[in-house]
Amino acid sequence: MDWYHIWCDLKPGAGDLAFCRNVDAYLGNLKERGLVEEFRLMRRKLGLAPDGAAEFHIMIGTRDLAQLDEAFGLVARRADPLEGLHAAVYGAVTNFKFALYRDFPDPPRPAD
């Protein structure tokens, strides 16, 4: 599995529960289309995190980079209904940081 990570904070005035519903609707739509395998939205607890860490962390799991690329390609078309779902999430956040990780060892490098 490849794991696309997003760390972000909410913009002033953005509601946390509305953000949660919007992430679920947006990523749930991609999952229903078979473009992501799973996703998770997490919120920092008790202020415990490294300096500069964002409040929210989203993990998106895909089988491989081809599936992730297909998801990005669909989102890039900016067509509804997906564009509206994406805008509801993207419009509520600031201070983005992104990363791409993989399970290890993965098939290209099997365990000894």
Topology diagram in text:
Blueprint: E1 2-10, H1 16-32, E2 38-43, E3 56-62, H2 65-76, H3 82-90, E4 93-102
Antiparallel strand pairs: 1-3, 1-4, 2-3
How would you describe the overall organization of this protein?
- The structure is a single chain.
- The chain has helices at about 15-30, 65-75, 80-90, and strands at about 1-10, 40-45, 55-60, 95-100.
- The chain has about 110 residues and is of the alpha+beta class.
- The chain has a single domain, classed as 2-Layer Sandwich (Alpha-Beta Plaits).
- The protein has a four-stranded antiparallel beta sheet.
- The chain is flat, with a radius of gyration of 15 Å.
- The protein starts with a strand and ends in a 10-residue tail after the last strand.
Under the CATH scheme, the architecture is: 2-Layer Sandwich
| CATH structural fold name | Alpha-Beta Plaits
Low-confidence parts lasting 5 or more residues at pLDDT below 50?
Answer: none
| Elements, N to C (H/E) | EHEEHHE
Quickly give the structural class.
alpha+beta
Q: Main sheet, how many strands, which sense, barrel?
A: 4 strands, antiparallel
Tell me the helix content: 25-40%
> What would you report as the Rg, rounded to the nearest angstrom?
15 Å
Strand order of the largest sheet: 2-3-1-4
Question: Into how many domains do the coordinates divide?
Answer: 1
Rounded mean pLDDT is 95
How many strands in all? 4
CATH class: Alpha Beta
Q: In DSSP terms, counting alpha (H) and pi (I) runs of 4 or more, how many helices?
A: 3
